[in-house]
Amino acid sequence: MPSQWVEWSVRSADPVEAGPLRVTPQAHALRVHWPGGGFVWNHPAAVIVERDGATERLPVIDVLWAVRLGLLAVLGVWLFGLILLALFAKRSSSKER
Prior knowledge:
Blueprint: H1 2-5, E1 6-12, E2 16-18, E3 21-34, E4 37-51, E5 54-59, H2 64-96
């Protein structure tokens, strides 16, 4: 069942030639399908560089991943603080009665 709904793959674009270099970009692709719709998420993975018969794979470093993780951590701390404030407010209001 998961294979028909979810597909994770590495896709290569058409190579680009610049002088003696041949450069081929690659991306990770996550495809999620369901009846009547779906979505695709592409993420740069690497660049394949061919020069003088030698091939080198250069990974693409995603610095935004760290930013996204930091934002999620801030959101988590904020939600935890909000829950604590709500609990303390409930406790203090029950003591006043």
